[in-house]
Amino acid sequence: MGSPVVMGLMKLIVFGVLGLLVFLDVPSFCNGGSTSSFIRKDEKAVDLPLDSDVFRVPPGYNAPQQVHITQGDHVGKGVIISWVTMDEPGSNMVLYWRSKSKQKFQKKGTVTSYKFYNYTSGYIHHCTIKHLEYDTLYFYEVGIGHTPRQFWFRTPPSIGPDVPYTFGLIGDLGQSFDSNWTLSHYESNPNGQTVLFVGDLSYADTYPFHDNVRWDTWGRFVERSAAYQPWIWTAGNHEIDFDPEIGETVPFKPYTHRYHVPYKASESTSPFWYSIKRASAYIIVLASYSAYGKYTPQYFWLESELPKVNRSETPWLIVLMHSPWYNSYNYHYMEGETMRVMYEAWFVKYKVDVVFAGHVHAYERSERVSNIAYNIVNAKCSPVPDESAPVYITIGDGGNLEGLATNMTEPQPHYSAYREASFGHAIFYIKNRTHAYYSWHRNQDGDAVVADSMWFYNRYWNPLNESTKSYS
Ligand SMILES: [Fe+2]
Question: Which residues form the Purple acid phosphatase C-terminal domain (predicted)?
Fold first, then answer.
């Protein structure tokens, strides 16, 4: 025990130092943004059993299943309708009509199938319908002649700079109990009009011989959303399905047979990179698992694509990719680095508003930073604040069987604004040419609860600093 005088002095010193720490706001001084205090167990999620109700096969002979839609042209007046029949090919006709209209139209699609090891797919139908009217509710029917099933969708409003539109963000979904929670949570959030999906769909490749039955179950699982609103597809590593040991050496075989995208409409030569316009957004989808180095087709395409974006027509420039460039988790750390080196300067030059990626099974949002000053001799190799740079958001938290990424790099880097290892989804609400509101919703909360959010100021029309913290 010390004397009362010494004890008093020690208390003064301790409280003095604590006071100084509070004054300096040391956590945000040493670290970047905030790391959520939510602590979750680092355990694998569990896939839903094959007989789960969400995988239910629709009744009736040769009934169409795994129905899903995506945008079918470059401007949002087209839709690709896809479905699978199991007993026989059946009709590949789509009947469609405007709500309250008696006049029905029809369009013939194509049918394909594939083999993967000892699995043979059902009959996979794709039908592209074009020249629809904007902002119109359409009904459609597939399975004609056997067991017809009806669905509906609403086309987006006409393209324009101040057209409000709302996108949902989902990534790395899989088919676990958590995946079902994420999808239900997204559905109960009434705002999403189109899903921007950032890759890793079914995780069938985690099963022995990449059991493609799990591609079918996944198709039936997401039908309840994907048949009624477009899901914009990005290919992830779990779509590669490449396994020489079982004799399957054609990459992306199940994915490309099952999920079509309108890549030719944006003059792409591959379904793995393409663009669409939708309402007030220009969306560029990139391929983390196709060549992107100089002189590659993707490089040439992106180089000629970015100057085409007319921000007076589509103010919001959004990029989707699978592997994130800015990721402070210890999972897939720096896997996106080589693509960042190739393309980041373009993203800054063309003022991309936001980049959504998946791959890391957690959530993270960055500050606006760039790391393009480095030139191999100048040692400028750290990200710096850059108001022309995108915000990078990792939304690979759909809930697949591989579980959460809970292990983070410490301290939190300056560029990382918020991170949390929870499953969830996000919503990007475009209000007009200057403002968009973004919110992230963790599964554990009610759908109205916002776990992370920010107002986006458009980089072309309103390039103000949105950051809530001072950081230099
Ligand atoms: Fe991935």
Answer: 389-452
> Per DSSP, what are the bridge partners of residue 176?
47
CATH of the domain at 453: 3.60.21.10
Residues measured by CB to lie within 5 Å of ligand 1, the ion: 200, 236-237, 359
pTM over 0.90: yes
Give distance in angstroms: CA of 179 to centre of ligand 1: 15
Q: Is residue 359 part of a domain?
A: yes
Nearest to 396 by CA among 422, 365, 358, 428: 358
The answer as to whether 38 is a domain residue is: no
pLDDT at 8 over 80: no
Instruction: Note whether 456 and 435 are within 8 A (CB).
Output: yes
Could you tell me the residue range of the domain that residue 399 belongs to? 161-199+272-467
The Cα–Cα gap between 174 and 200 comes to 7
**Is residue 382 situated within a structural domain?**
yes
Burial label for 25, CB within 10 Å (0-12, 13-18, 19+), is exposed
Query: Does 437 reside within a domain?
Result: yes
Report how far ligand 1's centroid is from the alpha carbon of 140 (Å).
Answer: 33
Q: Which residues are catalytic?
A: 332
Residue 318: closest CA among 345, 355, 350: 355
- Structural domains of the chain, count: 1
Interval 256-261 mean pLDDT: 98
Query: Please, which residues have CB within 8 angstroms of residue 73's CB and are 6 or more apart in sequence?
Result: 128, 130, 262, 265
